[in-house]
Amino acid sequence: MLHYAAFTELNSNDADYDKYIANIQRKIWEEVQIKISTYFRSMDLVNFKFDDYLDILVILNRFIELGNEFCNKASDCDIIIQAVKEQTLAYINFYHLSHLEELKMFLENEIWQCCPVRSDFSVFNLHEYKFLQSNEGQTPSDSVLELIEKNISSDLERLKANTFEINNNMVQLINISGDKKTKIDIFDEINLLKKKINSKNNESPQSSPTQSSDSVEDEFDEHLVQNFDAHNSINQEQPILTNTTLNIIRLFGKYIHMLSIFKIISFQVISYLMQLFQFYFYYIYLDFAQTDEIPMEQNDGSILNLIDKNSTLNTLFKNIKNDIFKKSKMSSPRMEQTKIVQNHDEYMDLVRQRIIATESLVYLSKLLENMFPLIKKILPMKQLKQNEINNLDIYTNILRETPKIRKTIYSYIARRAVDYNQLVDSIGRVNWDLNEILSQHNSYVDVLLRQLNDLKLDLQDLCAQIPLNKTIINSILEETLRLCMRVLVDGYSLVKKCSNEGRALMQLDFQQLVVKLEALFDIRPIPDKDYVETFIKAYYLPDSSIEKWVKDHPEYQQKNIAGLLGLMGQLSKKTRLAVLNSFQPGTLGSNNINASQFVFTYSMKIFFIQFLFVFFIIYLFYLCRAKAPSDRLVYKSQKNLILSTYPISFSPNLIGGPRK
């Protein structure tokens, strides 16, 4: 309480008087902060609804603004800010963990059915994103506007006249806003008025880091709406979403709403937002990219080696597993048992599930990727630590890498689309050791084209169940064609004998295949077309060029190179061994065989063949040496037998020949 004696001690100078009043105002504001903080800390807010807690944050933000105005924007709000930060962190942590468990339950019971949404679906159709829409279309009542204008315009005069005078206009404003018949949000009125004042004065008011800066929020909202409108105009296809995906999108909206209101915990909110996405990524990758629900009968391991493994996604998967489950001590989601496909309908059902899971994840990644640059605009970047800034870049890279999961998951669909074992066997049964050039391609080309056409028809039939667009269909077809090309090279490398005419027949078969594929599919160019052509033409390389060719083409597997070398009769033994010895682990494709082991095995085979040949020669020589004595023994025994049987004197010439 101010005492009269304190005023008498003041100097008549206005500067000292203003300084004294400002000091008193700061002390009053500190007392108010302490009382509000004590009361706020004592409250148990973890069970509050999310929207109710956001209303509390909005009120506290307005209260801080009031304190700044009361102290002429020279106050220190650390006391109340710290209390709000502690309670908000506790609330958002409890809310996030509970919804992670809920998300885990949803994923364990997800049937991967496409959720029907409109073709022009946007996140702004959801209630959680209504706060991002502009308030320019609202027309508040004139009476409330007039009262607010009167209240703000008279602030400076009121402070000079009497700092503690109660403003009748403010009381009237509170009475009007509290009327049950009035449905106008007072905060929307204030925000709208501030927009008009800022547009007239072309000035951006300064605010504390904890305040929700209206100019920044307006810029954020405007750019966000424009960005999503542009995104929706580009992609007019109906999005493929599940019920779980929609729940995650709603949580995104709630977290971004809290981020826009209370920026002091912005990085923690963003990390929780990314955990929701990473959890969804983890489950889909674990269920559809690592486990194989489409087993093959024979030669399954060799086909698996032809599928490219994305090391970036594998690393991302391991990092997510460590961050979410080891640090938070949450149990990993329960996975369903591996299904064995019995018929074509079950196979198409698995294809449908994989497409829905993959495309819903890609939609989430693109949604966040479009939001992230705009979210950064409202972050207090100067207050972030360096590791937090680095994490923001990591989050952005995760979102950019996520669409690559299409290749990993759709490759498993491609494995069952074509009978690759039959394709390899059909290539092996063809006689490539020809003496003349043929003009007709082999039958395995027609069989392969028929199976690929069946896949295209199956995907077209699937469009009746889920909204497949051209991008999704082409992604599946590209992975299937890419695997076909690799199997063709695998089959050509297993050929035992081949002449120049036979190699020309290979080129004819492949050219016929490419022409038919271009007519069948709207994909240009055919994936990995050069991969097969280069391998076929390498057969004609001279002895001096083969080593350089092998070094320039590390995409081929070691067994492919070894099979090619075995067919090239123009190569010397020295060149073959030099090429095999040049193999290094990891330089010739994704084959699991170590190069040094391969060379050692090849050398041992040669040594074993040479050893058998020498052993056979020695054995024949031994038999020749032992043949003469045995013949003499047989001759003597036959002579004695004859003499004992016929005791007649024979001429020596009859039996033994002339005597010596």
UniProtKB/TrEMBL annotation:
Residue ranges occupied by any Syndetin C-terminal domain in the UniProt entry: 352-582
Pfam families per record: Syndetin_C (PF10474)
GO cellular component entries: cytosol; EARP complex
Keyword Transmembrane annotated: yes
GO terms under biological process: endocytic recycling; retrograde transport, endosome to Golgi
Keyword entries, A-Z: Membrane, Transmembrane, Transmembrane helix
MF annotations from Gene Ontology: SNARE binding
Ranges that cross the membrane: 602-622
PANTHER family per record: SYNDETIN
Protein's UniProt name: Coiled-coil domain-containing
Species annotation: Brachionus plicatilis
